[in-house]
Each structure stands twice: as structure tokens, then as C-alpha cells.
Amino acid sequence: MVSDRSQPSVVTTYKDAPTRMISAGGVTYAYRDLGPIGGVPVVFFVHLAGTLDNWDPRVIDPIAENHRVITFDNRGVGATTGLVPDTVEAMADDAFTFIRALGFETIDVLAFSLGGFVAQALVARHPELVRKLILTGTGPAGGKDIDKVATTTYLDTLRAALTRSDPKEFLFFNRNATGRIAAKAFVKRLQERTSDRDAPITVTALRTQLKAIKNWGRAPSADLTAIGQPTLIANGDNDRMVPSVLSRSLHHQIPDSELVIYPDSGHGGIFQYHERFVPLAVEFLDR
Questions:
Q1: What digits encode the pLDDT tens for the residues 147-166?
Q2: For 134-267, where are the alpha helices, taking DSSP H only?
Q3: What is the pTM of this model?
Q4: Each residue's pLDDT tens digit, 34-87
Q5: Which residues of 172-203 are buried (b: 16+ CB within 10 A; e: fewer)?
Q6: Can you tell me the distance from the alpha carbon of 191 to that of 186, in angstroms, rounded to the nearest whole number?
Q7: What DSSP assignment string belongs to 215-227?
Q8: Could you tell me which CATH number the domain at 14-286 has?
Q9: Which helix (H) or strand (E) holds 175?
């Protein structure tokens, strides 16, 4: 791990990006930094139970060819210190603290699942910080059935344990022939990094994140018409965690947003269709 704030060497493959540390607001954040220095960085906001090692290199690496990419562990997760907040809004405050500690005044955001909730809260609190917004596998505050994510998570984790599988194979992908193949390939890609791997999330931290998600699902609806940033929304057509209809809801509420729904795919549609999603995301960022 690297603990100073020196400029990172240019690395364009996620499996080779060193884990770095920076302290701000009483928390030491673990993060990885890759891609060319300069320009507007793309900060990735991770999913429920996600650590630095849960990002698909087939999504990260092509974006990092021409964009600086930052991934980070939320407070109390992986190698980041502190206790996990029990609200999405507090997670957004932590994200702001981390981003400003790195010296960024403007960022682009690529967010997935819980990360999408956090990104929406960040934009509401600090609209001047975010230039462009990519929301994937996510939904608005008060969205139908978001408060049921815990039940789905526990059931699929049990199913995975009974079959000695990674829970993400059940949570992110359809359980048909196409989905099973995509799930196995995704999980295999997550293992490409063989050294300096992150610590897994603890049970206590997971439960607290699930409480924050339940609070988000039961919160009053936010006024998403206030989001002025160019926004790209993506999901699979059969998302069991954050129902696909909520991606359409985001699209209808966020002015001039763009929506893509991938067929025969679930929560992890952007990973199953990474060869289609990444060029779209890059074009959106470069536009």
C-alpha cells in the first residue's frame, strides 16, 4: 500500500494499480488510481458489500486507457477505517470528503447499485462537484421494493452457499444458461488481481449498509428534476435487486437523461454486456 500523496505512476490495468491511502475527516480511505493524469477523473461508486476488488476489470481498464479512474472503499469497508454509516446521505458526505482530500474540484461519476444511491445524494448536496453522471443498476429514493434488498441478499447468499458459489452469481445475473455463463466469467475476472487484495466486508458492515438501503427505499421521493448534469442510465431488463422499472423511473425524472436496458440480463447487466456498455460510457464521457 502507498500512504503518501505523491503523483501515482501511470497504470492502465486495474489488477496492477497499487492500493493507496489518504486520511481526511478522521478516516483513512483506501483507493486505487489509474489511467492518465489530467482531465476530469472518473470516480467509481461501488455496490453493496463491494470493496476495491469488486470492480470488473473489463469495465475499468478500457475507461482508464484515456481517463483517470479512481475507485475507493467506503468508510468502514475493506481497508478504509471507521464505522459504516447507516444512511446513504452520510455515505455521500464521506465520498465528498474523500474526493476533496484528493484535491478534485470536478469529477465524473460512474456508480453501480448502492453506489448509485450515494451518487444521487452527492449530486443533491454538491451539484457543483459532478460534471457527468453514469447510474447503473440503481434507483431513486423511495423506489418500489428497494427496501426489500436485504431479503433478496440473504436468500441469494444462502443459495450461493448451498451451491458453493459466489453470491454475486445469483444477485447480479439471471439463472438461465446465458446468465450462468456470464456470472462465472465475471467472478473469474474479479480474481485476476493476485496480490495486494482488499479485505472483504464484515458481517456487521454489511448489515449496516443494508439498513442504509432500507432507509433509502422508504425515504420520501427526491426531486430528480433538479439534476442538471448529463446523465446516462443503464441496467439489465430483469434486475431482481433494484427493479429495472426504477431505471426507467430515473430516466423519466432526470431531464435529458439517456437510458439503455440490456436484454436477458439482471442487476449486473453492465458486466454481462461490458463490450457494449463500455464504448457507450466512454462516448458519453467524451462527448
A1: 999 999 999 999 999 999 99
A2: 149-162, 167-171, 177-190, 203-217, 244-253
A3: 0.95
A4: 999 999 999 999 999 999 999 999 999 999 999 999 999 999 999 999 999 999
A5: bbbeeeebeebbeebbebeeebeebebeebee
A6: 9
A7: HHHTSPPP-GGG-
A8: 3.40.50.1820
A9: none
